[in-house]
Write a structure and sequence with these properties.
By secondary structure, this protein is α/β, with parallel strands linked by helices. The chain is built from ten helices and 13 strands. Helix 2 (81-90) links the parallel strand 4 (71-75) and strand 5.
């Protein structure tokens, strides 16, 4: 999801209906730079990434109690993968409302939803500072979004107001620390991972948002969340291209912050060289740790 300054009139459209009621979030913190951009290449990368992450997120959502007939708000929908996953869980009797601020990204998400034949998903173009009010949601969810927000606590507080008593708040966020540690045994893979991490850090993103969720949930007035950690493993070329793919989207920031590219050599051959390094080690590598946190809004 991308962010912009919160100076727009609080007006959004949900499921074809104008909704003027919204929940403004006041913050004086500077907004981080959204690191990955919104190019067509980045959209394709997100789709490939989402295909690998789908089993993890689906298991997490099921454990959190998301199921048939529920009304779900998906924060930072991107190209729609999490919203579509949730739509399949809630079924035709349920509804998913996706919030995304970038018009081009929403257009891609709507096209994909139509191609998938899903009729229970709607997207609204809105900044996270102006969330759609009205009918309460049974659950609010998000994946890799709070890490990019200038004030995730304020957002979570506002989101909890949109959830019915007893409803679910569930977020999948990242921890880079175990990924970077496990990557160290492979020099080129580790160099690429470290450069990506530095670019995210310089952009203002919280690369350890996953573990921060335990306190943020409680500070937002929610019960201490139930948490889990999982790490995807793989060695095929589609899996190992993840680091070069991410670096491709991060290159503008790498140049902007003058981060060193020399340790990676020729970027055009980086995917093949990384894959060769991993193949020579006869082992698997990980992606970042997926940290899930979910909690139910108190009934009283």
């Amino acid at each position: 999801m991308h962010h912009r300054k919160r100076n727009r009139r609080p007006f959004v459209t949900v499921a074809g209906t104008s909704v003027v009621q919204s929940l403004p979030i006041m913050t004086t913190k500077p907004a981080p730079t959204y690191a990955l951009g919104g190019t067509s290449a980045e959209h394709e990368r997100l789709i490939r990434q989402a295909a690998r992450l789908a089993p993890f997120t689906e298991r997490f959502f099921r454990d959190a109690g998301i199921g048939p007939g529920q009304r779900v708000l998906d924060l930072g929908s991107g190209v729609g993968d999490v919203a579509m996953l949730a739509a399949r869980l809630v079924g035709p009797s349920g509804e998913v409302v996706g919030v995304e601020r970038d018009a081009g990204t929403i257009a891609r998400a709507r096209t994909r939803v139509a191609e998938a034949g899903l009729h229970n998903v709607r997207f609204t173009q809105s900044d996270v500072s102006q969330l759609p009010g009205g009918k309460p949601f049974d659950a609010v969810v998000g994946r890799f979004i709070l890490m990019f927000l200038p004030d995730p606590l304020a957002v979570l507080r506002s989101l909890s107001q949109l959830v019915r008593p007893g409803g679910v708040v569930a977020f999948h966020e990242l921890s880079w620390a175990p990924f970077l540690l496990l990557a160290k045994r492979l020099p080129l893979w580790s160099a690429g991972a470290s450069l990506a991490h530095e670019a995210f850090r310089h952009s203002g993103a919280n690369t350890e948002m996953g573990f921060a969720l335990y306190q943020i949930f409680q500070d937002a007035g929610l019960p201490a969340p139930t948490m889990s950690l999982e790490m995807p493993l793989g060695s095929d070329s589609e899996f190992t291209r993840w680091v070069p793919d991410v670096l491709g989207s991060l290159l503008p920031l790498v140049h902007r912050f003058k981060l060193p590219l020399e340790p990676l050599g020729d970027l055009n051959t980086l995917p093949e060289r990384i894959h060769a390094e991993i193949a020579a080690s006869n082992s698997v590598v990980t992606w970042m740790a997926l940290v899930g946190a979910w909690s139910r809004k108190p009934v009283s």
